[in-house]
Amino acid sequence: MIQGSSFYLRYPRREEIPHLVHLMNLPESRGDYLSKELFLPAVMEKRLMDAQESRENMEFFVIADLSDQILGRVFHFKTVPYFQSREIGYSLFTNQTRGKGIMTEAVTLLRDYLFDTTLLNRLEIHMNTANKASERVAIKCGFQLEGIARGAVYDRASYHDILMYALLRDEWAAMRQR
């Protein structure tokens, strides 16, 4: 468990996984920028169960408040085999929890955890160019804009450009020294 100011990051419990997949499929939890494509429950349940057995390809945490209510999720996954990097993904499940700094703190906790416990040299966050809230999270967590992947994602009947942010280990270390 990784403790935050008013929540913590923890692995999902086996008995929570069906409910978690349900939360991830709710339209409100998808927001305006996540894909509208629904997760197949059996496939996603297996993926989450597999993630609990090894963090080599993916590690998944729920964001739970102090009463243990699940607020959202934060995770990292390997993108390409030849990069020493991970991409971070995240979402909050309700509009009531958004805009309160929870995700910035959760990503900061995950960022620090990954650099403290792995040999990774690079973390990435990608988002739709219109997703200003997610972009603010990346910037507040020290990530730098590297470019735009034009037409990289197909969703909602059109192609979308993706902002690509990254943070290197030495940049993170310099931030911690300040």
TrEMBL record:
Q: Could you state one GO cellular component term attached to this entry?
A: cytoplasm
Family matches, as Gene3D superfamilies: 3.40.630.30
PROSITE patterns from the UniProt entry: GNAT
Organism of provenance:
Undibacterium rugosum
- Domain N-acetyltransferase: from-to ranges: 7-169
A single GO molecular-function term is: protein N-terminal-serine acetyltransferase activity
- Pfam families in the cross-refs: Acetyltransf_3 (PF13302)
Q: What is this protein called?
A: GNAT family N-acetyltransferase
